[in-house]
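Milestone M4 deliverable, item 7.
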Amino acid sequence: MFDFQRARKRVVCADGFSMSVQGSQNNYCEPRTDGWKTRYSSVEIGFPSEKVEDLMEYMEDLGLDGDDADPTNQVYPYVPAVIVCKVIANHGNMVSGEVPNMVIKPPANGEIDNTHDAEKSKEENNDK
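Output delivered:
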């Protein structure tokens, strides 16, 4: 008998954005193991409700022409936890759904790209 971990509920953010965020032995994640208490440094994102630039470099190549691939109908393997948190924060934070326990490992250079947030802040300051 197989004992598979059930899929987590789809994440829905305050602005309506949604995506699947999974971690298990059957998903593209690190570590690639089951366990509700497992702490994942990267997880699998699936089928975001809109294109997210921060995820594009992780989009799985399904043999489709790059520009013709629908980013909302794709799987994004091994997305670092820090990127997942950034995407959720940029969409107003979670209002429902589930994410695996994640541990954030900073990039080797120690810098986290906050370009999106910085541009948003500049726009807000210019509106004042």
